[in-house]
Amino acid sequence: MLSPLNLARIPDADEALRFQVKAFLAERLPDISTDLRARSWMGHDAGFSRALAERGWIGMTLPRDYGGQGLSYFSRFVVVEELLAASAPVAAHWVAERQSGPLILHFGTEAQRQFYLPRICRGEAFFCIGMSEPGSGSDLASVKSRAVRTDTGWTLNGTKLWTTYAGAAHYMIALVRTSGTPEDRNRGLSQLIVDLSLPGITISPIRDLAGDAHFCEVHFDNVELPHDALIGGEGDGWKQVMAELALERSGPERLYSSILLFDQWLDHLRRGDAVDEQAITLAGSLVSRLASLRSMSVAITAKLVGGERPEVEAALLKDLGTGLEQAMPQLIADALAADPDLVPDETLLRTLAYTSEMSPAFSLRGGTREILRGMIARGLGLR
Description:
The protein is an alpha+beta fold and 383 residues long. The chain contains 13 helices and eight strands.
C-alpha cells in the first residue's frame, strides 16, 4: 500500500545552504536572458556545471571517499530548488548527479565507484539515460537492444531513442536485454555503462518543436564493451532501473519547469495600474498548488533520508507536478489575452512561447502519465 507522507521540514543546517547558492547564482546568471534561462534543466553549460562542482554542489549526497560531501538529500533539495527557481542551466551534470551516481554507488562494484563517482563530483563525467527505444512508446519492458557475452566482455547492438544530450555526454547507462526475448518483459534485463566514444556508436540529434536538438537517437552496431560495463547483477536491470526512476521523479525538478514564466508574469502584473482580480485569483491558485506539491516533495525527500525507496509516492508527485507545470503556460496565456490593455514585453512573450512549445514533454520525461498512474494504482492495491 502507498505509505503516508508525514509533514516534513528541511533542517536548519541544510537550509543554511540556500543563501550561498543564491549568492552564487546572482553572480553567475545576470548576463543570461530570461527567455534562454527558461530552458533550465534542458540548458547545457559544462562550465557552469564545473563551477558548481568546485563548490561541492555536485554529488553532494555521495560519500566523501568517492569525492562527494556525505550530505543528506535535504542539502541536495535546497541546492537543486534554488538552481531550478533561478532556471540555471544544469543539463550537463543533471543525470549523472541525480541518478547515475547514486545508482553506481548502490549497485556498482568498488572499482566502478572509485572510477566514476569522483569524476561525477568534479563535473568531469556527464551521463545520459538509455531507456526508451523506437517502437516501444512507454513500454520500457519491451527492450530489444541486446548485449551478448563474449570472451572479452559484451557486444552491444540496438537503438535508444529520446536520449537527452547523448551527443554531449561521456557515458550512457543503458537498459539492455542480456537474455531471453522481448516477450519475457522485465526478465533478462541488465544495465551497462557505455562509453559513448567507442567505435560503432552513432548519435543523431532530433530537433524539437522549439528548435532545440537536445534529444538524440543512439545506435549501437557491434559495440565492444568490457566485462566491467555491467552494473549490479545480470538480470537485475529492471529492479535497478525502478530505483533509479524513483530518484528521477521525486525531486523539485518536477515542479519548476514553468517557474521562470510564472515569475515574469507576476512582474508583468505588478506593472499594471489597476488590480486584475481574475489574474490575482489565478496567481493565488497556482501558488497554493505549488506550495502543496513542494511540501509533498520535501516529505518524499525525508523518506529518502530515512533510507526508504518511495517509488510510488515519487510517481504520484511527478504526475501531479508535471500537470501543474503544463497548466501554467496555457493559464498564463489566457490571462494575458484577457487583459489586452496591459501589453506584455517581448521577453515575457518569448518565454511564454518557448515554455508552451516544451510543455507537452514535461509529462513524457521520466515516465508518461499513463505509466505513472498504473504504478500508483498498484501501490494503492487497485490492480
